[in-house]
Write a structure and sequence with these properties.
heterotrimer, A alpha+beta, B alpha+beta, C alpha+beta, A: alpha+beta, Uridine Diphospho-n-acetylenolpyruvylglucosamine Reductase, domain 3, Enolase-like, domain 1, 2 domains, 5-stranded antiparallel beta sheet, 4-stranded antiparallel beta sheet, 13 strands, about 30% helix, globular, B: alpha+beta, Ubiquitin-like (UB roll), DNA polymerase, domain 1, 5-stranded mixed beta sheet, two-stranded antiparallel sheet, about 20% strand, disordered N terminus
Chain lengths: ~290, ~170, ~800
Amino acid sequence: MYIPKNLDDALEYLDKNAPDAIPIAGGTDVLIQIREGKLKPKVLVDLSGFRNQLSYVKRIDGKIVIGALTSVAELDESFLVKDKRYLGFADVSAKFASPVLKALATIGGNIGVAVSASDYVTLLHVLNAQVKLVSVKGERIVPLEKLIVEKRTLAKEPNEIIYEIIFNETPENSSTAFMKFDRREMIITGYVTCAVYLQLKDNIIEDVRIAFDRVSGRIPGRAKKTEEFLRGKEFSLDVIRQAYNEVLPTEMKRKSDFRASAEYRLDMSKVMMKRALLKAKSRIEGGA
Amino acid sequence: MAQTQAQEYPEITITLNVNGKDYTVNVKPYERLIDVLRYKLGFLSVKEGCGRGECGSCAVIMDGKLVPSCLVLAVQARGKKIITLEGIAPPGKLHAIQKALLDTYAMQCGFCFPGVIMAAYYLLSKNRNPSEDEIRYALSGNLCRCGSYLRFIKAVKLAAEYIRKGQIYFDLKK
Amino acid sequence: MASPQAEYVKIVEEMFEKKKEFWLIGQYIQRWDALSKMLGKAKFTADYAYLFKNLVYVYSVRAKYAHARIKRIDVSEAEKVPGVLKVITHKDIPGVNDVGYVLPDQPLLAYEKVRYIGDIVALVVAEDPYVAEEAAEKVYVDYEPLPVITNPLDIVSFGGLKEKEHPLIHEERGSDVIARFRIIKGDVKKGFREADVIVEGEYRTQFQEHAYMEPEAALAVPEPDGGVTVITSTQCPHEARRAISKVLGLPFAKVRVVVPPLGGGFGGKEDVANEIGTKAALAALLTGRPALVVHKREESIIGHSKRHPMIARYKHGAKRDGTLTAVEAEIILDTGAYASLGPFVLWRAIVHSAGPYKIPHVHTEGVAVYTNNVYAGAFRGFGNPQVTFAIEQQMDKLAEELGMDPVELRLKNILRNGDRTVHGQLLDHGVGLEETIRKAVEATDWYRKRAEYAKQTGTIRKGIGLALLWHGNSIGAEGADYSSVTLIINRDGSITFRTGLTDFGQGAIQGLVMIAAEILGVPPDYFRVEQPDTSATPDAGPTVASRSTAMGGNAALVAAYKLRQRLNQVAADMLKCSPEDIEIRAPDVYCKSDPSRKIRWVDLVEECFWRGVPLQEFGYYRAPKAVWEDETGQGEPYFTYTFGTIVAEVTVDMETGKVTVDRITTVYDIGKVINRVGAELHAEGGAIQGMGYALMEELVHDENGRVLNPNLYAYYIPTIMDAPKEIVALWVEAGYRRGPFGAKGLGEPSINGIAPAIANAIAHAIGARITSIPITPEKVYLTLKRLGKIKL
């Protein structure tokens, strides 16, 4: 365990010792990985000491900026969950982690672990989020979609840490929603999870982005063909049905495992998509 | 964690405050907060049910937030203020939530209770009049296999009522 | 000459007949251990680690394959790891390397073979738990992998349940069928010829994990005489002692087992201390230091017994008016790698395999077979929830076929006073089944909801369903059925209560205290319940099979009765009234006819002390003999049965298949409500656990016998958010003359009927039937999709 004096110290230490040394934020994933013998770090670099420094949700120049060490509990207290456009954050929080974990789990950690239980990543995908990485050599900004390569693999150097998450503010006529369900209500992975971003003008779909997790291979991803199909069309149940019956099955492979079959996952991705779009629409119109 | 670490890494001295009192302890880098609370300091109410943050039995309050002490490394708790079940009421007193859990006859095996009580205590510290849905949500990370769930809901409501009336502590003897 | 049996039976029957007014029984009373647990002061087994110095830590090295021959075990590298004190293998066992409960088929430390993924090949003992775990990776075992069998249908097949050709898992036994039981009554062929309607079905149930919140733990301390004291989480201290003695080669008297409070048991801690207690004891004796074993949750899940999965085929025949004519069934239980309680579980399943009904022609038969899955053993209900799941769905299918209401069909066929069971057992009194149905129907507005929900069309639909259940009390023909309690009235008037029965959270001991308190006239807070301890508390038989109140309650009753007789004599002498006139209500003792003639309880106790009237009593009770004819299943398998009716109300989302349970109404005939708090908690806890069984829980093995969900994240037990809005617990008190004040057991019955009631409610909601549990959203949705009832 290395306890850095400050962020610069942490970055320097990582630069010298990574990948033998790995950073630990909330620890909700790392400690379980170690427990299961899947991770055997020589040293953990404790980032919790400057948690406050990297915990924030801000509006800056038309952008929303979230510090990587912002916990789920802190996101719950931010303006995001009060702004109808970003209510998807409230949806994620409600099912992402039980209240016992909310103060530990961080949004940066959810990106960093890159597993197929990345509810925040799924939502951030539909917001076209970018991630700022920092190291001793400086900082760089990469699109989130490019950052997560595969399960537990990031396009990030071992000496870099996830610093903050950035996305553009979305117009007033837009909203987000996130859907997750499983055989029980809490402490779940979800059979299929779905996040949507919807932008409506006079009931025409100006823009739409749809992301799924537990559907396409090992990490969350976007259903871009389905989005393309919907873009510009008038919002209706018929159009949504057409999109999920005709287009959605042609993209994103679904697999069967002990939790669910590919067939069920496909059908539930349809239901989740429909329900998420309806919810987003209702939010745009002032509902919850 | 690795035995090599047990050999190579020296213990780290940390100070933490538990239930209002400062303690200075030497810990191995891989020791968890739950290990220190239970086996170094003797706060045995903190129970380990899963070691993975799934069951909530080891929940404590750390710097005002509910956390599973099995997923916090002891080193990360340095300088923090911890509250365990032993510290929610003065000696000889019961906290309103404990009184309410007795009033509703909720006790079964009791292994999950310390965690359940801490989660309820945390909820009540933020919300003095929680709805049934809010209570269910607040306790949704605390597994109870004996099935006292519906009594937990009644008890938290009752405790909230006590607290709203200013009755936070109750005499143990009664 | 009066036999001793006659005396205690006479006392129990006299109390049942004469005592009609109660000052404690049936009241809401705070349980004896509630406060210490509420304060976090109760010490569970692992907590004792804080109180001992110089502990050593034991870590179990488990199998890499679910089925393999062991060619060589090399512990030399592991023993070199700094901090490791000893690595124990089968060669180090001083006694007999076996911890099997019913059959001697389960080595503590595997030597020739491993038979499932939780088998233990070595124990690493170290100064630090993390070191022990790390060193475990350096234990090298040469395995020759063998074919893994995870499907019981690879061992036997339907149509006679004959054993198939297959590589044997237990070569030493010559067969992988561990037990076979049947009920044969009348002539089923004739019964089906007489039937107007026949329904058939195949039903499957899954491995269920106990998931008690406290993982198994044991702490063993070496004693100066070469013996050992083991503090451990077990439901059966005397049984654990037997196993530890056997493996260590020590006399029982040198092995002391002490049981702290348990964080849940549900049957899972019936035999697991045979393993964990022995592991700790071995390490303590071989190192000369106190040794601690605490299972991690992942180990707990792969390493202890589960509820037996069942595959069953049922066929029922009935007349047009609903009268049952015949039932035929073949039942296969998967007992996994070891027998554990398997033979007894199968037997209980078969005893209950026709349900609480009068049926003239019966042929049910079952086998329990080995596989390379995690072993199955005792779990609340013990074979009965499995068959009840099948039977009660069959009854609903039959009702549907006949166009009858499910309630009417059942009323036509249920057991009532004076009826004989399918085993030929006469139930001459105490059958409150019909009343449970009537109460349940009334409390739930059954007929209105049945009719109304049948008309629904939307995406979200409601359903209501019911199930009946019965449950033979205690061990029955499984074995010696006795219990005992020691009461000691101390000189200050406080009372020491001792029994070898354990409280694993269910509150059973509270009921026993209340029975003794009721008779003595001394409030429960005068009592101190001692920890079960094989050196101090009497062997009371195992704490299993819903027997604590029915059996231990009688022992408490007998002990208290005898003390009360003596107390009455002395008090009568002191107060100058007749012994029958004495009323004890500690702190006072007075004459009923003249309450002003009064002494204090402590004075009465003091007087007994000086007069030499002993105030210690040992209460013993043995159950009426159970009878079981192996070839036909005829006889009297249990001395009495608990009956019940469950009504479940559900909401189903047709698009996702997700089921929400809104309300569960339970009505149990438990003879007499003794401990009302405990009874209600059983009804609620059984309902929630049964809901998990019905809808979400399932331990999954892959084809190599590896467990895919060994944690509480992927093994789903209900959270508080899943709990029904309401659980309504109602009671029928039909009274059983040989139960304490008429009482019968409830521990296990409280889970039996939940899953079939929920399954029947789902069928009512969606118009389709799902015959395997858990009824996951996927099963519901895909069933609807295949039937064309839902289109996205």
